[in-house]
Amino acid sequence: MVTTQLWLPNESNDPDAAVYILQGEKRKWDLLLTADADFNPTGESDETGLQYKLSPPDSDGRWFLVVAHLPPLSRSRPIALRYAALRPGTSPEKPVVLVSGRDRVDPFFEPPFRIEAGAYWFEVREGRKRKLDGELGTATVRYEISNYGARRVAPLADTPEDFLDQWTQAEWNDAKRWTKQGSSPGLEEWHGRLHSMAADSAEFESVQPCSKRGDGDPDWLIELTIDQRANPELGSDRLFVHVAARNGEFRLESVQKQHPERCAGRTALAPVTDPALP
Q1: Separation in Å, CA 65 to CA 62, 88, 152, 156, 207
Q2: Which of 123, 124, 167, 229 lies 20 to 30 Å (CA to CA) from residue 68?
Q3: Which pLDDT value is given to residue 148?
Q4: In sequence order, what are the residues at sequence separation of 6 or more whose Cβ sits closer than 8 angstroms to the Cβ of residue 104?
Q5: Which range is least confidently modeled, 5-14, 165-174, 201-210?
Q6: How confident is the model at residue 184 (pLDDT cuts 50, 70, 90)?
Q7: Sign of CA dihedral 252, 254, 257, 261
Q8: What is the dihedral of CA 169, 141, 149, 40, to 10 degrees?
Q9: Which of 159, 211, 219, 157 lies closest to 183, judged by CA?
């Protein structure tokens, strides 16, 4: 792996950057893949500009490259993060794009994002503002890689409140994979309402831990207050969302307008004050 930085006389402090993957045998080296980044802020650590990970080979010897970066001169809040998983293609300059994405991260976190990769997966851990309440949180964008492409898998987040924010932003075909089926009617309809909510128009009043089940999996009750002037279609200014961890993965169990008796109490949500990305 070779990385380069090229400064151009265009009054910019940000160099163009590129990553090259070469394979060598004896004295012969072949260029297999290249990815341009067009960033890498001067004076910043490697973790805040270009990041890349080369996956270990899978059982068939196939590998992929994950590249994530922040565009130059993007110093305002939030920052646009771009990432992609690539395999060698018909030429080094035309890799196969398994998946690509663009998210908003917040420079409060140090670093704003981090990537990891295995033989069959990669993830981008991001510090960002939640859409629901506009407060700081984190998200995990994790993909399972196969010969045919990429599929998003759990985890989506580290905390119940961040999971709920991710669940509401996802399209229903993805969100239903992390939804309990058959127990609470109307969850697809509730997802549609929450999905269309105006940004920063709710507040997390509490995230109350409930009693654990016999297998040790925890539950939480999230109390959410809604600005009805911005979201008249919701028909309520307060919702109670039941989130549970099942086999280590968050799942949305129910959405109710009334506080359920089975989970009494209120635990206020503490704001994020530690800039270290989990």
Answers
A1: 11, 9, 17, 21, 38
A2: 167
A3: 78
A4: 78, 79, 80, 81, 128, 129
A5: 5-14
A6: low
A7: negative
A8: 120
A9: 219
Query: What pLDDT is stored for residue 39 in this prediction?
Result: 44
Cβ–Cβ under 8 Å, residues 163 and 156: yes
Parallel/antiparallel/unpaired status of strands 219-226 and 238-246: antiparallel
Nearest Cα to Cα of residue 249 among 129, 170, 158, 115 = 158
What does the domain layout of the chain look like in residue ranges? 1-153, 170-270
Q: What is the pLDDT of residue 247?
A: 86
Task: Identify whether 155 is preceded by a cis peptide bond (ω within 30 of 0).
Answer: yes
Task: Read off the pTM.
Answer: 0.87
Calpha distance 162→160 (Å, rounded): 6
What is d(CA 67, CA 203) in angstroms, rounded to the nearest whole number? 34
Q: Retrieve residue 94's tokens.
A: 């035309």
Site of tokens 């398994």: 98
Closest to 134 measured CA to CA, from 219, 175, 77: 77
Looking at the DSSP bridge assignments, the partners of residue 206 are 223
- Rounded to an integer, what distance in angstroms lies between the CA atom of residue 2 and that of residue 25? 17
